Amino acid sequence: MNPGPSETRSSRAPSPELLPARMLNEFAYCPRLFYLEWVQSEFADNLDVVEGQFAHRRVEKEEGKVPEEPGEERIHAKSVYLSAPGVGLTAKLDLLEGEGGTVVPVDYKKGEVPNIPEQSWEPERVQLCAQGLILRENGYRCEEGVLYYAASKQRVAIPFTEALVQRTLELRDQARATADARTLPPPLVDSPKCPRCSLVTICLPDEVNLVGGRVPLGDVRRLIPFGDDALPFYVQEQGVVLSKKGDVLEARKKGELLQQVRLLELSQVCLLGNIQVSTQTLKALCERGIPICYFSYGGWFYGITHGLIHKNAELRIRQFEAAANPAEATAVARGFVEGKIRNQRTMLRRNHQACPEPVLDELARLADVAGLTPSVESLIGVEGAAAQLYFANFAGMLKEGRGFDFRDRNRRPPTDPVNAVLSLLYSALAKDLTVTAMAVGFDPYRGFLHQPRYGRPSLALDLMEEFRPILADSVALFLLNTGELQATDFVQRGPAVNLNETGRRKLYRAYERRLDTAVTHPIFGYSVSYRRVLEVQTRLLARFLAGELPRYPAFCTR
Length: 558
Known about the structure:
The chain is an alpha/beta fold. The chain has helices at residues 21-29, 31-38, 47-55, 122-137, 162-181, 200-203, 205-211, 279-287, 313-324, 326-351, 357-370, 376-392, 417-440, 458-464, 468-481, 501-515, 530-545, and strands at 19-20, 74-84, 89-99, 102-109, 144-149, 154-159, 231-235, 241-245, 248-253, 256-262, 266-272, 276-277, 292-295, 301-305, 490-493, 496-499, 518-520, 527-529. Strand 15 (490-493) and strand 16 form a beta hairpin.
């Protein structure tokens, strides 16, 4: 059951002694959903959640009074908070009705009355019974509750039988034991509950079951959205000021309105150079979880502003434990390097005019070696050898006659147009994986392959390894081979070469198009955008660190 508005906010950081009745609902529905919300503080909206909020709108506002002591007066109160330390429960009651010391809790549901003999689902009955137990401990007589189904406009009475009370207390004890175990319960297998769960993109039930070996190979349901309706907003014109007007972000220069975009459509705001942002705008972006990413004028990614840190501290504890353990760190890093090398080999096979077979064979061998390398230090050597071989043949993927030559990979600063394009694309990819890592709950600065260094998002650099060839390098080849980038899109100052404002605009547009391109996931078989793949892979890393997967499954194009 997806979290409704009546208890979502109040149940994210409850007293450790009291379990919200809403969480009993979640546990009865799916123990894994309960753990993600209650222990790891994960939450996400979907259509069901939004519709549930709409159904609760009339009872969300506190109204009416509840006497401190039960009496004879009539009670009709909305949005009532009550706790019962004796049974270890707390709840926010949508509606409380009663008279003469006898009360009836009414819980609002957005859907229709279920077409089953009980006319209600067990999680709903358990949640309502928990409210009844809380009322009893507070001195009221409470023998039944009511479920109001908004779509049917119908009330269903739920008697608090001894069997229902015992089931509620049993689930309460099981939920507490699950939380205390600090082990994420396994996903449901091929369950019809999963498609409408708001946390399905976080849980990844079918993906975890497949990679974890709990189900045989076969088609995996695509329960996650194809892409994301919200997109990055790039601002690179110097002197622009960003401000907020209602729910709209405005970009102005010297008072002139240059562009408007609704906050609802933003996934991140990327600022290149000297861009001003009002305090009100910063506050609104932080409240909505929209990060502000800062780049130098030349495109070097160096900072980020975001709201409060992700609440899943459990994941960061596992991240730091694994990173500090050489064996575990190596096990994670192998997947990044092996995936990168295999994707480099694929790029040469697809795009090189005539790549020598020995080169392809050596890259295949190095990928196999990476999968067995015993230490991070050795792995870095394998990755370096593969990169040297790959870039030694990179020029063969560039069309002749375009005026762009490539001899070797150089940076800080790049000394030719091809390296300038690659560096800017790698910076954009590092930014996106920093944002993704933070959204999942990781600390982006503690990596496994890349060691910590002040100001360097090491984990983001780890995660981007397998995507460098198929996202950044592929965009570079497209821009250079199609003529979308011309010599006039570059500037040179001393030995350094960089893109000018027009060139950067072309590059970012091509990069964002690439992220929105559909791709078939090589393991799960469904089609999603590359933008969504970045999130899926980051969440699979989280599942590996949680002990649910035997390995980190790198993304390797076929």
